[in-house]
Amino acid sequence: MDNKEVTLLKKALERQKKARQQAERILEEKSKELYDASLHLKETNKILENLLDQKTAEIDNVFVNIIDPYLIMDLGGKIIKMNGAAEEFLGFTKDDNVKLTELIHPNYKEYSKASFKSLYTTGLIRKFRPGIITKHNELKFIEVNGSLIKDKKGNVSGAQGVFRDVTSELEMKNLLDLQRQRLDIIVEHSPLGIWLTANDALVKVNATMQKMLGYTEEELQTINPMDITSLESLQASKDYRQKMFNGEIDDFSVVKKYLRKDGTSFSAKTSVNAVRNNKGELKYEVALIEDITQEIALEEEKKQLVKDLESSNKGLQEYAHIVSHDLKSPLRSISALTTWMYEDYKDKLDENGVYNLKMMQDKVESMDKLIDGILKYSTIKSDNLDNSIVDVNEVVQEIKDIIFIPDHVTVKTANKLPTIYADRTKIHQLIQNFLSNAVVHIEREKGLVEVGCEDRDTHWEFSVKDNGVGIPKEYHEKIFKIFQSIGNKERSTGIGLSIVKKIIDLYEGKVWLESEIGVGTTFFFTLKKQDENTTSN
């Protein structure tokens, strides 16, 4: 090998050496880069692992702490995971291997099948409301919102859902529905017509109102309430409704005439109430209509009867005056004649003749008293009461001064009598009849009559007590009827206590008695206090 070849080989070897050194240097650099990249990747993986653990913990924390019950189930319906709220509500844990479909109440099985089918078809389920049976055998109602769970490849692996307890809500809804049904029954079967409008448009009308008017509800939908109101009733209704619309009033009541479909009319008391929103604006008008056609007819009939009765009473009073005058005139003549005969012939007649003449005088006197009593009884009526302030103590004293009181009888007041607002003449008649009746029926050695009074809130309760012969129980009611009396007919016309009863009736009072034979009698009577009465002194 010559030098030239050696030189060439040396140069080639030198180039190869340099190339190897350069390759080693490049390899060293790349190895370092690879090592650095490996370290960086390791650190990155560690960060990612920590981040994944953190996110997983956060997700688990969210899962556990969701307020509403939350669960995950596989495709077979088995619950594989649920939060504390779900466990507490259902009473189960995921370890109980419970299938959600097994908890569905039998009445909701078909509904549930349709809902789950929709879930698998659309991927979502919204407001699914089944009834379920919990571990404690309680029927609960839930509302479920859920979706399907898919893996990385998009295959469905299960489903998840959040649900809430709507048991109380449904119970309240059912209660409201029941109350609404009951209210509808009440409205439909009410004896009153019920009309609900909004802005003059009919919202609801019950069967009674339809029957009153002769229209169906569909027909009334097209009719304004004003169109079925008689012309004379329109203005009053319009005025009130305008005030209601303006917020001046919330209700009113009027008597209106309504026009039926057949052209006839009827009168009705109409009570209207406003239903307002929270702004005070008129939302609805509720009208209650009561047919008072018969009541008005009866009232008119009553007025006519009262008018006829007043006319009849006036005629009877006039007749009583005429009869009294016509009877008293011959009685006075008979009385005068018997008196003259007694004075002229008492010495010429035998004992029987004198007795008969005296009896005739007594009978004439009794007849005169009877006529006076009838006249007084016929003139007692409420429209001629002349009420004023009356001191009853003074009235009793006046009566004691004018009536005959036997020497063995004492009349006194048991307590201070009140000052009342009443017709003095009527009160005088009333008490005088009681006192006159009492003093003539006392036959014991020492007679006593006491007048008393008690305040009974709305009435005065008077009493007249005597220690006379007493009144048998069978007469306690009869003696207050005209011409009814007991005992000596010469001393009683049978009209006095009937006058008493009539006066007491004028003052909306009552009269009764308590009596014991041989012990005495107490008459009680009440008089309603009048507007201008005063309290007792």
Account of the protein in words:
This protein is an alpha+beta fold and 537 residues long. It folds into 5 domains: 1-65; 66-172, Beta-Lactamase, CATH 3.30.450.20; 191-291, Beta-Lactamase (2-Layer Sandwich), CATH 3.30.450; 297-375, no CATH class; 385-528, Heat Shock Protein 90 (2-Layer Sandwich). It is 48% helix and 24% strand. It is built from 13 helices and 18 strands. The chain has helices at residues 3-65, 84-90, 100-103, 109-122, 167-189, 207-213, 217-220, 231-245, 293-345, 351-379, 392-402, 424-439, 496-506; strands at 70-74, 79-82, 124-128, 131-133, 139-150, 156-165, 193-198, 201-205, 251-259, 265-276, 282-291, 387-391, 409-413, 419-423, 447-456, 459-466, 511-516, 520-528. The strands form 4 sheets. Strands 1, 2, 3, 4, 5 and 6 form a 6-stranded antiparallel beta sheet that branches. A 5-stranded antiparallel beta sheet has the order 8-7-11-10-9, sandwiched between helices. Strands 13-15-16-18-17 form a 5-stranded mixed beta sheet. A hairpin with a 5-residue loop joins strand 4 (131-133) and strand 5 (139-150). Helix 9 (293-345) runs antiparallel to helix 10 (351-379), helix 11 crosses helix 12 and helix 12 runs antiparallel to helix 13. This is histidine kinase. Residues 126-178, 252-304 form the PAC domain.
